[in-house]
Amino acid sequence: MKLAANISLLYRELPMLERIGAAARDGFDGVEILFPYDLDPAALRRALSDAALPLVLINTPLGAAGEPGLAAVPDQRAAFRDGLQRALDIAVATGCPTLHTMAGRPPADADPTRRLAVLVDNLRWAAPLARAAGVVLTLEALNRHDVPGYAYHQPSEAVDVLRQLGGDDVRLQFDLYHVAREGLDLTRELEAARPWIRHVQVADAPARSAPDLSKPAVRQAFEALLAWPYRSWVGFEYNPGGGTAASLGWREPLRQLIASRSATA
């Protein structure tokens, strides 16, 4: 597995572009940025090159009023498509391979069949554009406590959409924090979603703080990933509290877990 720092949350004590070098110095293999749309793509590309780190994940833009995406929102098709193209332009400019396609909050009174049809239609439009750009789209279930009314709150709901789409252009982004906030068993959900997973993210629940590998559920989830073995990215998307350096205590337990798994492989 490869470890990415989500520098929209980590290293906030530094200007955004300087966070990339800080992540490299702390041993991360790559970085995630939630919404890089205020950054100059050329400057971002230089900062990535200087640090010898890839940008591995970005999100599609928020809606004009701060909505968490638009892919499943009726009457927002044009805005979604404009935002998707903006995101692909950034992804191509920076070599970012994965784009979290945010679905948003459909109206509460919208017919469920219509909501699904809007989402699937938008994703079917977006998928070939992403493929041509060398980018894979992802769907991420966001928990109902933090993002009430989101199009899907649990990984199984996002997988239902992926089943309807078929193909490999749209995959699952599995966030242990959101799954825990939904009260679900992390390892059981990981195993059920395994064929669909493109990208994993982690934070401790319920505070979205640094992951705690002394918690059996968190440790077992990492053990499952290592046993597969999962070879793609794990993004550390958490609030560091008193500063990023002080929040990195999870690294040594994770290194030990990886080493123990390697020794028994």
From TrEMBL:
Gene Ontology molecular functions: hydroxypyruvate isomerase activity
Keywords: Isomerase
GO aspect biological process, one term: glyoxylate metabolic process
Active site: E140, E237
Endpoints of the signal sequence: none
Classification via InterPro entries: HyI-like, Sugar_Epim/Isomerase, Xyl_isomerase-like_sf, Xyl_isomerase-like_TIM-brl
Gene3D superfamilies referenced in this protein's UniProt entry, alphabetically: Divalent-metal-dependent TIM barrel enzymes (3.20.20.150)
Keyword Isomerase appears in the UniProt entry: yes
SUPFAM superfamilies, sorted: Xylose isomerase-like (SSF51658)
Xylose isomerase-like TIM barrel domain residues: 22-250
Domain of life: Bacteria
Entry annotated with the keyword Amino-acid biosynthesis: no
Family: Belongs to the hyi family.
Protein name as it appears in the record: TIM barrel protein
Organism of origin: Piscinibacter koreensis
